[in-house]
Fold these 3 entries.
Entry 1:
Amino acid sequence: MSAQQLSDLIRFARHNSPFYQDLYASLPSHADRLTDLPVVEQKAFWAANSPHENRVLTGPLSEATVYKTGGTTGSPKFSVYTRDEWRTFVTSFGQGLVDTGLRPGHRVADLFYAGELYASFLFVLDSLAHAPVDNVRLPIGGGAPLESTIPTLRDLAAQVLAGTPTTLCRLAEQTIASAVRLDSVELLLFGGEALFDDQRRLLTAAFPRAEVRSVGYASVDAGLLGRPVPGPDARVHRAFTPYSVVEILDDATDEPITEPGRPGRVVVTSLFRRLMPIIRYPAGDRAEWTGTGPGHFRILGRAEEGVRVGPVSLYTQDAQDAVAAADTAGHVAGLQLVVRRWDGRDGLVLRLAAAPDAPGRLAADRDALARSVVRELETVRPLYPDSVRAGFVHPLSVEWARHRDLAVNPRSGKLVRVLDERPTA
């Protein structure tokens, strides 16, 4: 299926999708520019896009594949693609793989997750199969035991590992702990979640010959978002023209941002999907134009990935920055925010995963490093120590763990950045 004209897509959605018909009811019939249209409201979209009595789809669900998605809320929902739409999806994404460094003949291990309607494993495998360069595909999956994955990678001389940062880091930790060398690995392709500096250090320690790059920017709900841009910053991508249109909108006004370096939220319009139209759909991320090339943008993280502890709002990026500032020696290989409640107050625990080679180095100064991380975080979020003094919340604390002990989503294998362990009624 080829990309369609925006005006045709708008007209088709208005006539065939009850959801878009209602959303555009007050617009003139000739509205055919993105800026003429409202941004989709997530809650309303997913309320209408239900398995029963669906009001988003433009026709009956008679030929399609159904995938499960967390959308931007973390609550599983369903996204559908016709076979033609899926072919366009994976073919376009596969073309972008050449920008990651994929070379003819590369042996690529697909370590993403499969089953339970999850798309990433099939998506990456099909994208590799539709890439414009020959490659050897190794469909191992992220759920396979590391005890069998590592020998398979070694025996088949895998050169490229593709998976979530969490999966790649667990593999790296295991190879270091077991003193296994996977010298054939020369390229690590991550996707599905952000890669942080502490994780990059762990991957470099385990795979010193490998470059670490983004596999590309896409999601099963929003579709094609960004093709990798070769260069030192793995966060930089460009839109999959002509199959999608990426906008960066002002947080307060929803006006399109055009100048480089000004952050805003990412909104996408898919020009190849008709069964489940995606028009000015919030991708759930923040980004900024880089000005380095046509349509080049830098992903800045999730739009609202954080937690509320008592009266204090904290974001995972705040904690990542605090660790980066305090951990100059590279002792930390992972971070998770754990919220608990006891004695009538909330409390935040920073769960830090020690790098595999760090225990000996850390023994003497683990407590000092923990105090330094807490000081850094309290500096950028002074409301937290103020709330401690007021008796609203418990003091920040640090809990040490191994990377393999960090909680992950059992379906996707992605690291759960925030664990809320507070009891609910």
Entry 2:
Amino acid sequence: MTADAAIGRRGLKRGKKRSLLIEAGIIGAIALLLIFIIPTLISPFRLNLLGRFLSLAIVALGIDLIWGYTGLLSLGHGIFFGLGGYAIGMHLKLQVPQGELPDFMGLYGVTELPWFWHPFQAFPFASAAVVLIPGILAALLGYLVFRNRIRGVYFSILTQAATIVFFNFFNGQQKLFNGTNGLVNFKTLLGTAVGSRPSQFTFYVLTVLLLIATYALCRWLTSGRFGRLLVAIRDDESRVRFSGYDPTEFKVLVFAISGAIAGLAGAMYTLQSGSVSPRAMDVAFSIEMVIWVAIGGRGSLVGAVVGALLVNYARSFFSEQFAEIWLFFQGALFLIVVTVLPDGIVGWLRSSDLLQLGHRRQLSTYPEIEVNPEVQSERQEIETRSEE
């Protein structure tokens, strides 16, 4: 390795480290603001609303991971979001005296608890199921789809069709899941009242911490060689395959992670909203998730969070102030983004050099990748090793 290349590589590493430290400092400051300052400035109702929106920001990160970085437009993340909600909801509904059944089962003549409900009596199992069930389902669905090299609009159609199947299934199971009404009227969790103010504040703080942890996970996954491979799959999957990689394995993995993240978000939303129903698996809700990412700016983790918070707060504000016409404001917002800001809000700020937080400039595809300093340094390192 030449001296100039070594100096350039060290400078690149120092720049990355400095950028990560700045980013970590800003995120830490935002976390402190959300946990210690915001709760003193807004009412408990608004705080609960903010907690729900932060949980929706978690699922937006998962969608950005699969769509923004890997190029797979999923219109079925409501499935995983709803399954996470039902997993924790089933545990909450089982917090009844020994020998009794959840209240809704008695209305439909159920006399014995269904076999698959029994494991959810244990909180550790329910907590693991929140991420494992959606993640495993996403991996199975992804494997069946990606091994047949289905992608593009066909992948989107299949995920949307799967959403319809799950919505109709849960909607029609009155005896097992209370049908259209879903699981409601949660009482206690680990011996404390779910709806009490201390419990709701605990859920809010936990949501903030999980959002930060999810952001850190996605940031780590999209950095380095794995992140560059995801971008390469998005930009030119055929060339990735010709280079000796199997895109199927990576797409299944990232889809499973994205599904698990959505399940986690669904569980936190259920804890703070006090209910979960088949509406979480509605096609329209899954499309809304994609819209959040598009408005914030796909391919940017910060954009996913900003888009989820902005759209949901705008919807809440306009529905309160303009109850009869608020849908027109929401439609206008979507049209403005599509026509004026096709890269989303963060994409527009990037082009204006006004935002650098969380921005890792997207790798250009060929031939610009040949002059990428990271690629050059790695290539020189490989050549040096071969000579030795």
Entry 3:
Amino acid sequence: MSRLLRLLVVLGPLAVSPVALAQQDVGTYNRALSAFNEGKLDTAAPLFARLAEGEDADLKGKAEFYLAQTFAKKDLPVAAFISYAAIVNAGPTHPSYLKAIEGLVDMQQRLDEQNLIPSILNQAYTDEVRDRWVTLPKEVLARINYLVGTASQRRMRFEESRSLLEAVPADSRVYAKARYLLGTVLADPRFPGRPGEGETLDKEAIAAFQAVLNTREPQVELPETRELALLALGRVHYRRGEYADAVKAYEGVPRYARFWDQALFENGFARFQNEDFGGALGSLQALHAPQFEGAFQPESWILKATVYYYSCLYDEVKTTLAAFDERYGPMAKQLEPFTGEDVAPIQAFNLVASENRRLPRAVYLWIRNNERIREVMRTLSRVDQEKRAISEGPWRGTPFAAQTVASLEDIRTTLLQVGGTLAKNRIKEAADNLRTFSDQAEIIRVQTALDEKDLFSEGVDQKALLTRQTLYRPKMPGAAWNYWRFQGEFWIDEIGYYQYTLKRGCPARQEK
């Protein structure tokens, strides 16, 4: 054996020098970038992913950013969000740090993701980086302030949330959403400074809600934000005892809009407190129409019974409470298996995410209508869609596809935990509500029986008292209005315009 051959046997294959490796990586990067610029994204992505695992810090940073950009251009926003988030979490020393923040905000908008991305931005938005973040494009910074303000509000860091939301300028597309959330923060009873500064905070909250109503397009989700602002405005006025103003706000919510049923319910309370018993029952009449058959509003029946009770119409009280028991009594029993501590969050989420077979329909729809749960379901659907696209597409069977799908699966697991926690809390809230209102129904039932006994003891003939009274047509709001007597049929163009007239079964009391 020659000396040269012996050396080859001992050394094995010739090692590639670091310089050669660096040149090779540069070549790979140039090919990947060229493919990216030519729109050959299926070629570019695996090359960028390979470089992102390399040792060259400069190439690694560029490749990580371009990989995220490639995912975004291929309409894989969840995969892009994962890549952008990794850069943001790496910190401000990353060469593509600020660009990744822009990309993350863009993916949040495309996905309408309200749970994970705001949390990531909230953790990253530290004092160390604030001076750098202000150099971001104006609209990007506005959205960051809104998203981080949302995260702060959920964590009850109200003053921090206020500062962030007030920083959203009027020309931002999220201005209306930021103003609505600002008003909600200021009106929160837990906001620091209450009750001493309550009057000032209430006025600022009302001004914030009015700003939403005065905002014009283009805005993100402006119609729904206006509805929420009207509901919030009504709640502030109601809490302040300004019941007529509360009624005006609630009645401003458009008929058949998403939050109209909630507006009808709360308007019933406002009208009741404003001593408009007929108006309160009119709002509840609309809420109890067949069009709202799937609504979960147990308290509305307690309010209806309360209105009748205050008018001493005891037969109507008992009829209303019987209707409450018939509708909501079985729901309480049906929820019992799903409210224990042994129910896992993912099990709770599966109850509301799949076709309903076990939860009461009204509760099922009420939980699914929660915006955060809806968002989790939307994002999970998008994750599954992207997993299929990657597993069945041009990258099928490659290590790159396996790695990307694994990252998507991690996000899916996290979303299931978030959605499961939300669903479990919502199921418990429904069960607690049913228990609370069943207790209130029993109190009204007992008090009604006691009052009937008192009337009998006093020799009051309530039936004769009611027979002597005359029911008059309600006052017409204007010349364009017509009166139609309700005869048991719900016409779609009449729902929401009901007004009761009531007799009063309470005997006049002699003043002593």
